[in-house]
């Protein structure tokens, strides 16, 4: 059962690692990974001193930070609410409805967002017009992009993300709850003093994993939703790498930018792991 997983990561994650050398070479197709002149940190220096550096870093961080801050607690709260539902039929209905968006293709999600926010016949602008308000061209307004990206991401993922918390809650010793009821705790006290402390190890591990992916913003969704008018708030490192590497065929520069992104991600997860170990005595390693 482990073999397919091992082969996937070995072929697609570990086997291509020698390609990192392209970040330090003047790479041209046909000469191979080990061909081309060695340029050292030229591409990285060029990126750091480019006019887009701080914009890309800011956008990448914010588009990952907002969903983490706003959306990280929602699956936990939803899991607690689902476990408390006594009606089995309604519980299964609520879980199914919230799980389904996770399985919808990113392309379809982006199409839905664009159609719903259309300035001509989108449902949102139709509602605004019916309320006597001016229509808004959301997809061409840079100030709206982060809100749209964050809200749609939370809607799409919170249900599926709650599964692991529901499983963790179901594994809590029920005798603790029985003891709490004997001591006269109310439902809020039960959640605050029994459920959440029992979920602490799961929450810490998932939070650390989320920190590790904070620089890996959903490339497909950003690419499908952004445009030239929203670059100021929407353009992230991964989309910039795509434009430089695939569209402009500047492979060495694009690889250096991607490597920079990976190094920042590693530093973030390492710092978060060390901080968690010192504060909570819990860590990934």
UniProtKB/TrEMBL annotation:
<keyword id="KW-0812">Transmembrane</keyword>
<feature type="transmembrane region" description="Helical">
    <location>
        <begin position="97"/>
        <end position="116"/>
    </location>
</feature>
<dbReference type="InterPro" id="IPR050809">
    <property type="entry name" value="UgpAE/MalFG_permease"/>
</dbReference>
<dbReference type="InterPro" id="IPR035906">
    <property type="entry name" value="MetI-like_sf"/>
</dbReference>
<feature type="domain" description="ABC transmembrane type-1">
    <location>
        <begin position="57"/>
        <end position="272"/>
    </location>
</feature>
<feature type="transmembrane region" description="Helical">
    <location>
        <begin position="202"/>
        <end position="219"/>
    </location>
</feature>
<keyword id="KW-1003">Cell membrane</keyword>
<feature type="transmembrane region" description="Helical">
    <location>
        <begin position="6"/>
        <end position="24"/>
    </location>
</feature>
<feature type="transmembrane region" description="Helical">
    <location>
        <begin position="251"/>
        <end position="272"/>
    </location>
</feature>
<comment type="similarity">
    <text>Belongs to the binding-protein-dependent transport system permease family.</text>
</comment>
<feature type="transmembrane region" description="Helical">
    <location>
        <begin position="61"/>
        <end position="85"/>
    </location>
</feature>
<keyword id="KW-0472">Membrane</keyword>
<feature type="transmembrane region" description="Helical">
    <location>
        <begin position="153"/>
        <end position="172"/>
    </location>
</feature>
<protein>
    <submittedName>
        <fullName>ABC transporter permease subunit</fullName>
    </submittedName>
</protein>
<dbReference type="Pfam" id="PF00528">
    <property type="entry name" value="BPD_transp_1"/>
</dbReference>
<dbReference type="InterPro" id="IPR000515">
    <property type="entry name" value="MetI-like"/>
</dbReference>
<keyword id="KW-1133">Transmembrane helix</keyword>
<keyword id="KW-0813">Transport</keyword>
């Amino acid at each position: 059962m482990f073999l397919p997983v091992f082969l996937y990561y070995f072929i697609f994650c570990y086997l291509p690692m020698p390609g990192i050398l392209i970040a330090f070479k003047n790479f041209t197709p046909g000469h191979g990974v080990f061909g081309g002149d060695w340029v050292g940190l030229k591409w990285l220096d060029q990126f750091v001193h480019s006019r887009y550096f701080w914009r890309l870093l800011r956008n990448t961080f914010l588009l990952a930070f907002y969903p983490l801050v706003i959306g990280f607690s929602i699956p936990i709260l939803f899991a607690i609410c689902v476990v408390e539902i006594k009606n089995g039929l309604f519980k299964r209905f609520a879980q199914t409805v919230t799980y389904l968006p996770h399985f919808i293709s990113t392309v379809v999600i982006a199409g839905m967002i664009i159609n719903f926010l259309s300035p001509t016949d989108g449902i949102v602008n139709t509602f605004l017009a019916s309320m006597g308000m001016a229509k808004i061209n959301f997809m061409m307004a840079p100030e709206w992009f982060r809100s749209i990206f964050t809200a749609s991401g939370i809607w799409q993922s919170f249900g599926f993300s709650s599964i692991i918390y529901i499983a963790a809650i179901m594994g809590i010793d029920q005798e603790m709850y029985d003891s709490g009821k004997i001591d006269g705790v109310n439902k809020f006290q039960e959640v605050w003093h029994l459920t959440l402390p029992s979920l602490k190890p799961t929450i810490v591990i998932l939070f650390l994993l989320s920190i590790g992916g904070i620089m890996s913003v959903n490339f497909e969704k950003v690419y499908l939703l952004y445009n030239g008018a929203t670059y100021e708030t929407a353009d992230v490192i991964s989309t910039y790498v795509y434009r430089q590497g695939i569209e402009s065929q500047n492979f060495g520069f694009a690889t250096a930018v991607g490597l920079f992104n990976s190094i920042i991600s590693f530093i973030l997860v390492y710092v978060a792991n060390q901080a968690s170990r010192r504060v909570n005595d819990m860590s990934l390693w």
